[in-house]
Amino acid sequence: MENPAAVYRVNTLARINVCDHIDTPLAQAELELFRSLFGRPAQLTLLYHWARLIELLYAAENAIRLLDDPEITSNETRVKLTPRAARGVGCVEAPRGTLIHDYECDADGIVTNMNLIVGTTHNNAPINMAVTQAARSLIKAGKYDQGVLNTVEMTIRAYDPCFSCATHRLDGKLSVKLDIFDVNGELVGTLAN
After folding, report:
1. What phi and psi values does residue 101 have, to the nearest 5 degrees?
2. Which residue in 52, 80, 146, 159 has the fewest CB atoms around it within 10 Å?
3. Arithmetic mean of pLDDT, 16-32
């Protein structure tokens, strides 16, 4: 599956690719440099990290601006709510990608059903494509080593840096396993950390 239809990516690189302008000066300058070096759209998976840095710079610049906003710094921080049966669906762009939340509550305001579609779910197909491409480009003539596994892991973490901490097993080890198949689809080896 080289470039299947309907595969899309979310997260920082996707946002940098679709934005026309960033409204803080330092982040805008970095966006212009990024575009001059990589074009638009930029597709290299590891550019997620650079895009993430541009967004962090924007967040720092914007935080300074928000600290002067009287509405944010007022004493009115909580609004009283009355529980009721309802359903709420929302979509927000978060650091790890697009989040879709769908909640149903009973008359007491207790959540009875929920469905979350998080950035990693959106990125599942491109992550799998990137891992396959990395493994195929690194494993040659049946030769592979721990460095191959590390590089494949690097590809996964570019989509979501939270994987580095969030995917540990109870014993503290990462639960990453790479099964290696020959051209006939036979399992010829496994790498795990």
Report:
1. -115, 135
2. 80
3. 97
Whose tokens are 């006939």? That residue is 184
pLDDT at 2: 58
d(CA 35, CA 20): 11
Q: Are 10 and 97 a contacting pair, CB within 8 Å?
A: yes
Output the pTM of the full model.
0.75
* Torsions phi, psi for 21 (to 5 deg): -165, 150
**CA 73 from centre of chain:** 31
Distance between CA atoms of residues 46 and 154, nearest Å? 8
Mean of pLDDT values over 100-118: 94
Q: Where are the domains of the chain?
A: 12-66, 86-121, 141-192
Neighbours of 115 (CB within 10 A): 10
Query: Mean pLDDT, to the nearest integer, of 10-37?
Result: 96
Give the C-alpha separation, 120 to 135, whole Å. 20
Count of CB atoms situated within 10 Å of the CB of 144: 18
Higher pLDDT, 153 or 4: 153
> How many Å is the Cα radius of gyration of the chain?
21
Q: Distance between CA atoms of 151 and 104, rounded to whole angstroms? A: 42
Buried b (16+ CB within 10 A) or exposed e, 3-42: eeeeeebbbbbbbbbeeeebebeebbebbeebeeebeeeb
